[in-house]
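FAQ: What does the model actually see?

It sees only this:
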Amino acid sequence: MSKKNAVGKNKGKKGVQNGKNEKVKGDLIDPHELEITPLALFRGYSAFCQTIGILAHDEIRRCLMNVDHPNNGRQILITKSANEKVLENDGFLGPGQCRALSMAILGKYEGGNNRVYTTLLEIRIVGSCVTDDGAEAIADILRLGGSRLQLSLLELADAGIGVRGAEAIGRAFFRGVCL
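And it is asked to produce this:
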């Protein structure tokens, strides 16, 4: 069996050697690719949420973990109907979850090695409690991810974003980020 097949066969097992005497932790990073998987992104996001004492958002899990969906890992879609009351602690995406998502996309979690998650094409957040703090976290994705991002659509509507958050996103675009 070739070295490549030996690694592929053991992919996903904790503590497996990848042929270069480097440990591979679960499915965090495929040793043959430099891209982060949707599973790794979700694990990084969940770990950061746990670190700051908030729950991971179920819709982010669904967007990243539904392997049967054609946009798996390429689209973050969080929507609530206009008739639902928007409260930060009732399942809506809040600023802490935006910060956790930002840190995960930028690869700033154990095993992420500061690798930007480049598969993401769209972020759509409608009817949540993103607030100015969450908008600043999203602006960090744009600003710090830079040209490595493939993001082609950012939609933030009815998300409780004020002047400070809008200015942060505007500054990120002003610094050369294009969608």
